[in-house]
Design goal:
Elements (H helix, E strand, L loop, with lengths): L1 E4 L5 H13 L3 E6 L4 E6 L7 H5 L4 E5 L19 E3 L2 E3 L5 E5 L6 H14 L3 E3 L17 H14 L3 E4 L14 E4 L7 H7 L6 E4 L6 H13 L5 E5 L17 H8 L4 E3 L1 H5 L2 H13 L4 E5 L17 H18 L1
Parallel strand pairs: 7-8, 7-14, 8-9, 9-10, 10-11, 11-12, 12-13, 13-14
Antiparallel strand pairs: 1-3, 1-4, 2-3, 5-6
Helix pairs in contact: 3-4, 3-10, 5-6, 9-10
Length: about 325
């Protein structure tokens, strides 16, 4: 249920109203906008008398929310959420360019790529240290050593770090990581989502390859309900009947998620297509669709990459993509 409080109401009256709802056993999510305050009531609201609440002189309107996701619902929080990562921001008109290799391989490799993507305009550095792979015989990442190399590249460039976490038990290793990424395979690892909800770091939550938007938002709700409201949604392609690309890039998910939720939405055209030459047009398309950022894989030697070389851009190719994306943004903003 959502209760919209009239503008210019004294803080004391709003506090009494909130305390009244809490005395009913309800959780109250407060969203203070420029012109109004929205109270999201969480819990069993079936016995709440809507007519009584609406009759209060400080209440502008009351309506029930039919969606099961509450805290990430735009009805609860009408204004876009803006998340700060280092000196960068994402959401609410702020655009993030996240780039780097699929896997951290060597110090020379990650530092070289980090410097190249920063020079091209990247605002965050991505790189995998813990790698979930379909085959147990494929490269699984350098794990703790990979995180150390990623931190070296971060110090060299000043870029905030984005990397995937596969288990809540590994959280102590990620203390110096700026954004924790939940991969598609772990989107519904609910125990881990709850643990990430207890940490004070932005979480980049990727959509599962066979999951609906409602399921993605419910996974975001797990994180937020545990206390962490700094969630970034990521569309990275879904499994369909397509036989020419790695996945099907669901571009319509971007504006739909913005309609449903106040959380920032980024797109990952690298995993969505699996083909390097398709990353540029899909980056432009995602930007035109309203994405708040792009996550793109970049490698200085894709032919010899230990992971996902076929979808990785060379640094000079990434620089060209950035130019095109900025041109698209200039045209639509």
């Amino acid at each position: 249920m959502i209760v919209v409080v009239k503008p210019h109401i004294p803080e004391e009256k709003r506090t009494r109203l909130i305390d009244w709802f809490k005395d009913m056993g309800l959780g109250v999510h407060v969203s203070n906008g420029e012109y109004q305050t929205v109270l999201g009531l969480i819990g069993d609201t079936s016995k709440v008398d809507m007519d009584l609440i609406e009759s209060l002189d400080i209440v502008q309107s009351v309506k029930r929310v039919t969606e099961r996701f509450k805290m990430c619902n735009r009805k609860f929080h009408p204004e876009d959420t803006v998340i700060t990562v280092g000196e960068s921001k994402i959401g609410g008109g702020h655009f993030a360019m996240i780039a780097g290799p699929c896997s951290v391989e060597t110090e020379d490799q990650i530092v070289a790529v980090a410097k190249a993507v920063k020079a091209a305009g990247a605002t965050m550095l991505r790189g995998g240290a813990f790698k979930p792979r379909t085959s147990p015989y494929d490269f699984q990442g350098l794990r703790e050593k990979g995180l150390e190399l990623l931190k070296i590249a971060g110090k060299e460039t000043g870029l905030p770090l984005v990397t995937e976490i596969m288990s809540a038990a590994d959280l102590p290793y990620f203390e110096d990581v700026d954004v924790l990424q939940v991969g598609a395979r772990n989107m519904q690892n609910f125990d881990m989502l709850k643990e990430l909800g207890r940490c004070n770091k932005p979480i980049l939550l990727k959509r599962g390859l066979a999951n609906t938007l409602n399921e993605l938002l419910m996974s975001a709700e797990y994180i937020m309900a545990s206390g962490n409201e700094k969630v970034i949604l990521c569309e990275r392609g879904i499994r369909t009947y397509s036989d020419y690309t790695r996945n099907t890039f669901d571009l319509s998910a971007i504006p739909m998620l913005h309609e449903l939720s106040h959380l920032p939405v980024v797109a990952d055209p690298s995993h969505a297509t699996g083909i390097a030459r398709l990353v540029s047009p899909m980056s432009c398309a995602a930007t035109a669709a309203g994405a708040d950022g792009l996550m793109i894989e970049v490698h200085n030697d894709p032919l010899h990459a230990l992971c996902d070389g076929a979808q990785s851009l060379k640094p000079e190719e990434y620089a060209e993509v950035v130019k095109k994306v900025l041109a698209v943004r200039a045209a639509i903003v």
